[in-house]
Amino acid sequence: MPEPLEGITVIEMTIAVQGPAAGLYLRDMGATVVKVEPPLGDPSRYTRGRDNHHPNGSMGPQYAAVNRGKRSLCIDLKTTAGMQALHALLATADVFVTNYRAAALAALDLDYDSLKTRYPNLIYAAVNGFGPLGPDQDKAMLDGVAASRGGLIHHTGHSDRTPSLIGAIVLDTAGAMQLALSIMTALFARVRYNVGQQVQTSALGAALWLQQWELTHVGMTQASLPRAGSHHPNITGFYGVYTTRDNGAIMLAQVMDQESWDRLCIFADALELSLDPRFQTPGQRLGAGLTDADTLEVRRIFGRAFASKDTATWIEFLSQEPEIIWERVNSWQDVLNDPQNRANDYLTEIHVDGVGRSTTVGNLVRLSETPGSVKGDPPVLGEANNDILSSLGIDQAVIDDIEQHATATRVEWLTELQQIADAAAGLK
Fold this sequence. Notes:
Layout: E1 9-13, H1 18-28, E2 32-37, H2 61-67, E3 71-74, H3 80-90, E4 95-98, H4 102-107, H5 112-115, E5 123-128, H6 143-149, H7 170-193, E6 197-202, H8 203-210, H9 212-221, E7 240-243, E8 249-255, H10 258-267, H11 271-275, H12 282-285, H13 292-307, H14 311-318, E9 324-328, H15 332-336, H16 339-343, E10 347-352, E11 356-361, H17 385-391, H18 396-427
Parallel strand pairs: 1-2, 1-4, 2-3, 4-5, 5-6
Antiparallel strand pairs: 7-8, 8-9, 10-11
Helix pairs in contact: 1-7, 7-8, 17-18
């Protein structure tokens, strides 16, 4: 069977995560995705992160995660030949995806107003930090600042401490999900109404999307929800994470029937809770009607209970209780080894330049009749220059000029880096 987006061509001018991850979804669904990179490449190619002992120059995990299966063109858009090549690409494209700043795009005449007449059927998809309008429409963004502006950080962590960052770049990836959804909607609209259009979303918008219940609750009640540490700011009762005797952690969310509640209370040496009229229904056990004092009491009881037994003992008991909603709190290493993720093909193997075989997140969407699939490895910088540009009818001399210019720019950059390193070494 054909894949859903087979025959769709996407030209991607993106960096980091929020733009590339949207293009990755389109690629998994069958689109051809051509990533246009400057002579030095997407900077995330070189983002190493902590405890990365692979050789310098190896492809970074951030780039590998969100660019697998794409083709890479290395083009300097400040040159006539580079811009000629880009417009040859756009003439073949269905979608243009970018997270470059609006001012930079306008300076290159690559803003939507400059392209819409020339390419009337093009879906022009742009994502940024804080939205396309307002005083901060072109403000620089990294994930943590969007999460802070959107309220997630203020409500994460303990009430008596500084607010905590989230343990992953949630807003970058959520913004990418919103962008991919928007692009799919625009492609569907083009089929129905034969019109291209601009698609815009942002990390800030994604933050609001992720907190619809909490923000609506505050909007309706004007409540001031405190940070609740291992619990949720808007859920009373025992719902939360508890530390076990061997410093593991279990998330206990809900108990759906009375028999399971009775067995949990007995196992937790908290038989008094089994008969307590405050906890006799699933709604009560999720906090309905509880006061703050009730909540503190039941959390103290379960805190002591979990701390009295090791993680394996708790898992053995809870695994036999299908009406108790719970999970062990997994590390990222645990996640990579979780058989449930393997069973659903949520993880895949790729070859990473300079590293070798590695595990990353795969295609997460299953379609019964037109399924997508993982398409391959993250590309080496400029690997598709000759292949794609020649297929567009660009003269070989122009292609050679593009390649030579990009190579010379990289050599100059590496020379400057080495000079800086040598100077720093001389100061020691």
